[in-house]
Every structure is written in C-alpha cells, then in structure tokens.
UniProtKB/TrEMBL annotation:
Residues 80-332 form the NodB homology domain. This is Polysaccharide deacetylase. It comes from Chitinophaga ginsengisegetis. The keyword Signal applies. Pfam families: Polysacc_deac_1. Keywords: Signal. InterPro entries: Glyco_hydro/deAcase_b/a-brl, NODB_dom, Polysacch_Deacetylase. PANTHER family: POLY-BETA-1,6-N-ACETYL-D-GLUCOSAMINE N-DEACETYLASE, PTHR34216. One of its GO terms (molecular function) is hydrolase activity, acting on carbon-nitrogen (but not peptide) bonds. GO terms for biological process: carbohydrate metabolic process.
C-alpha cells in the first residue's frame, strides 16, 4: 500500500470506528508445538492459553450463533467484541485447543476441510513440507510438470530446497485439486517418499469432529472438500467443492451448516489468480450459507459484507505482543 492510500485507509477506519464500535474475528490454524513451521501457522499451547486468558478478561467474546446474529441482521456489535475461528480442521484443534478454550470459557468456530478426514494423508502444503523439508536424501534437481508446463527446480543444497518449497507452494495454491495431486505424485516418485502422512499433521477424525460439534465451546463450519483456491474454479466447480463439504458435515453432524471460510482467503491476487471471486459469493448464497469469512486484515461492522468478512491472522505471539496487537484493533 502506498503512503497516501495508507493514510486514506486509516482515515476511513477512524471514521467507521467512530460511527460504530468494530468487532474483530481472529484466525488461528493450529495449537501445538512443531519441529518446524514454514508457514508460521502454529501457536504453542502456552501462548494460546495466554491469548485466551487476556481475551476472557478484557474483551467481549461472542460465540458463532451470536456473531451470526449481528452479521445477518446488520446489528451493531457490543463494545470490544471478538470472535475466535480456526481453519482447516487439524487434530490439535480438538486435542490441544479445545481443552484450553473450555478452561478459559472462550467459544470458537472450527472450519473443516473434509477430503482428508479419516485418511492417512496430509493437506498438500504439509505434504510438500514433508517431502522437501524433512530429513532424507533428495536428488539434486527436480523436474516436474504442473498444468502441462515442464519446470525445473534446484534441490542440491538446504537453501535451494527451501526456496523450491516456497516456490512450489506459491504455484500449487492456485492449481486445481486434480493438478495438485498429479504434482504430489511426481514428488513422491522423485523423492522416494510415500504418500503416508505424519501423525503430527493429521486432521481430526470424524469421531473428533462429532465430539467437537457437541462441545460447549466449539461450533463447526465448512472449508471446502479439497481446499482449493475457489477463485480459480468455474462457478459449477466452486458450488461442488463448497457444497460437498457442507453436505458431508451435515450428514455427520445432523445439523444444517451455515458457516464457511474461503481456503487461503486473501484479497490479494497475482495477475489473473484469485482466492475467491464474485462466483464464490454467488455459490455460497445458493448453498444457503449465511456467514462467510475471508482472510484479509480488517475489522467487522454491522454493514460489512457477510460473504467476505475480514479476519486477523494470529501468529505465535507471546503474551505482550498479543496484547499490543489487540489494542491496535480497538484503538480508535
Ligand atoms: Zn485453510
């Protein structure tokens, strides 16, 4: 953002927040301790517990039903309203996050990706990390065909392998699910590694998703079946991807699903590449979803679009950093 647009943005925020108290949606992915976390998406249980202690004391924590009520009816939020969400559906959400949410009596909404549940497989970006960044000898060069385009990457040093990991991560996030699978097959063959995932990166089982759905401080939402950037799919493909996760979750939980979050979900784009678009919103509406979260920095007001709500991505912040970040969102 340029200096002038930054200024305009901050003035707009100032005015909006003067008119009405904002609410904030926090976005977490994992609560656990990992050996490496190249996407920086994991928060340690110690830090998460300190976040919750602070939120429970200083903020007005809303649950999914309450937040939806304000969004759907365009009602102003109570002062200092905060809503906690989790994307993807990792097992640690149930094993490590839920006990802490219960202890601090903070409710959260968990968006679930359905395709890898009760399988031995990891989500593709974890799989990519497992193949490239965990111990094992790799050939010095990777030749791979993605979307019919042959490409070559250097993998002869640790630094080169890391660079290759980040480059492929960028390319694959804008590919269709079948194309990602083809790329992973080539990577398994090239590396000599199998498709079997690590216990540390597994998703919740269906039993765990059900237990989560029954828990007092948890609610469930959809996050597509195979986690593609829906903005790269046709309207029909989007409808199917989003609709499949909704249908599967409704079958397992026996309750209508009205919550959804876009995979990746950023508003930024690369050329023609999009994480979500107007068709995504149309598909969500057609499927009867009522509240949809994106992943761009911002606060929520009663007039915010319920089909692309901003969220604040929480990193593994120590208590003092988390406290300062929270102050920032409510400083106006
Ligand atoms: Zn996700």
């Amino acid at each position: 953002m340029g200096d002038l647009s930054k200024k305009i943005f901050s003035v707009m925020h100032y005015v909006a927040n003067k008119v009405q108290q904002p609410a904030v949606i926090l976005l977490y992915h994992r609560v656990t301790t990992l050996q490496q976390d190249p996407q920086d998406l994991s928060v340690t249980p110690e830090h998460f517990s300190s976040h919750l202690a602070h939120l429970a004391t200083d903020y007005n924590m809303l649950d999914a039903e309450r937040f939806l009520y304000h969004v759907k009816n365009k009602k102003a939020f109570p002062e200092r309203s905060v809503f906690v969400t989790f994307d993807d559906g990792y097992a640690d959400n149930y094993l490590e996050a839920l006990p802490l949410l219960t202890k601090h009596q903070v409710p959260a909404l968990f968006y679930i990706t359905t395709s890898k549940i009760n399988t031995a497989y990891e989500l593709w970006w974890d799989d990519l990390e497992r193949v490239l960044l965990t111990p094992g000898n790799l050939p010095p060069v990777l030749q791979i065909t993605i979307n019919g385009q042959p490409a070559q990457y250097t993998t002869d040093t640790l630094a080169a392998i890391r660079e290759t990991y980040y480059a492929l991560q960028q390319v694959l996030r804008f590919c269709k699910p079948a194309e990602i699978e083809l790329a992973m097959q080539q990577l398994y063959e090239w590396s000599g590694k199998t498709a079997t995932g690590r216990p540390s990166h597994r998703l919740m089982t269906w039993e765990e998703v059900k237990a989560m759905g029954d828990a007092s401080y948890a609610a469930i939402g959809c996050h597509t079946h195979r986690h593609p950037a829906v903005g790269m799919l046709s309207y029909e493909e989007q409808y199917t991807e989003i609709g499949m996760s909704k249908e599967i979750l409704e079958g397992v939980l026996g309750t209508p699903q009205v919550h959804f979050s876009y995979p990746f979900g950023g508003r930024k784009f690369l050329g023609t590449k999009r994480y979500y678009n107007a068709d995504s919103i149309k598909a969500c509406k057609a499927l009867g979803l009522q509240m949809v979260c994106a992943n761009y920095h911002g606060q929520v007001h009663s007039w915010s679009n319920p089909y692309a709500l901003p969220r604040i991505l929480v990193r593994n912040w120590p208590p003092d950093v988390f406290r300062k970040q929270m102050q920032q969102f409510f400083k106006y």
